[in-house]
Amino acid sequence: MAPPFHIDNDEETLNDTRSIVNDQKWLRIFPRCVASKDKSSKFMTRAVFVTFSMILYRRNILRKEYFATNYVAESLKLKTLDFNHQKAQKIAHILKSAGEAIALGYLDEIALVISNSDGKEEAIEVFSFKIHYFPDGGVVAQLNAEANGGCLTPVQKLANLEYEGTASVRDQFILMHRSIAVICQKIMQPLPDRHFANFRVKYTKEAPIDYRIKGFSDSPIFYTHHKDVLSANLGPLRPGCHGGVLGCASIFIEDSSRAEYILNKHIEKAAEELGWKYAINNSLPNTDTANMTPSSKSDDTEKKKTIASKSKSQKRSSPYSKRSDKR
């Protein structure tokens, strides 16, 4: 299968070997260097596509024939939506369009929202990819954990995370996708045979009021969580001028302590294999982590009921609404 995106890496002439990756498997999808604003946004666009492809595959939301096999490293084989499959191609273009909004600085969050019935706002499971922008490539602000009750949110931690070269970003990407595999295969129960899934986006405050990502339509609310969900942070990505945090919230995580132990055990092992000291914060006490936005103690109760605000101008949903059709 041909790679879903064409990457032109010939213009990269950086001499710092930490800043480039020459692995031909990686270069089939991702840029050689992700330091510049342009290459950083291209990496994030492709990361959104590959990440949600993997989630759709691992959660058995789409049938196997929707996917093709790709490699981004010797140690990471993954399934991505197959551009040669007509129905898969439609979904792939939705993700590609959402990713391209990153280049404009307009995408704040994209979420795969799964519910029990079509059109229902209450989600039984959500995979959310939150985007952060670093205008000059550097850390935006040094945040004090004590100012937030001794614990920084995943996005606050991302704001403190330095870009350390493309090789480091590749390792972050590998660990994130190991986390997806672990949580889908070893922690969460399978989805019910009858379920509905769609993609929803939230825009940044910089987005024009009439801006629309192709393939998405207005929705009165982003999403709300079922009262019984538990949540997990599946890891950060930090290319040169952007950042991303992937989170999962689901009613199919049964035991938070066991889930945290399993996830950390597998990711620490994967990090050791990469020769990279990496600590992933996977606290699973309640729904706050999945919100991935700073919150004060005074509004914690409300945020557990309704995770996203209801600003009509900021939320969009994809008309793609997938009912389970595995046969």
From TrEMBL:
Compositional bias segments (type: Polar residues): 308-321
An annotated GO BP: meiotic cell cycle
HORMA domain sequence ranges: 38-248
Record's protein name: HORMA domain-containing protein
Stretches the record annotates as Disordered: 286-327
PANTHER family: HORMA DOMAIN-CONTAINING PROTEIN 1 (PTHR48225), MEIOSIS-SPECIFIC PROTEIN HOP1 (PTHR48225:SF7)
Listed InterPro entries: HORMA_dom (IPR003511), HORMA_dom_sf (IPR036570), HORMA_MeioticProgression (IPR051294)
Main localization of the protein described in the UniProt heading: nucleus
Alphabetical UniProt keywords: Chromosome, Meiosis, Nucleus
